[in-house]
Specification:
The chain has about 100 residues and is α+β, with helices and mostly antiparallel strands. A 4-stranded antiparallel sheet has the order 2-3-1-4.
């Protein structure tokens, strides 16, 4: 099992704009569970601390294998959802690790 964690800084700086962005990202990404083989779970959440140095939003997903994670990255449904993410974000950080 591989855990995939991605953090983003959002384009929106106001709370209302950030909520709209996070909701759009979650709506695009979370339904991919059950549609992409090997994607076991996926959650998108906003930062709860509202500290300026924190990242604004996080994605945590679990994949059945390293190969499943690679397949997820290029899957057409993920690429389509990624367009929503790219439209709302300006910076990205990621880490993947075995469970």
């Amino acid at each position: 099992m591989i855990r995939h964690i991605v953090m983003w800084k959002l384009n929106a700086v106001d709370a209302a704009g950030q909520k709209v962005a996070v909701d759009a990202m979650a709506a695009a990404l979370e339904p991919l569970v059950g549609q992409i083989e090997g994607l076991e779970s996926l959650t998108v959440r906003a930062d709860a601390a509202a500290v300026a140095s924190n990242w604004d939003v996080i994605l945590v997903s679990d994949h059945s294998s390293p190969e499943a994670l690679l397949s997820y990255g290029t899957h057409p449904l993920h690429v389509e959802a990624g367009a929503v993410v790219k439209a709302n974000t300006r910076e990205r950080a990621c880490v993947d690790f075995e469970l």
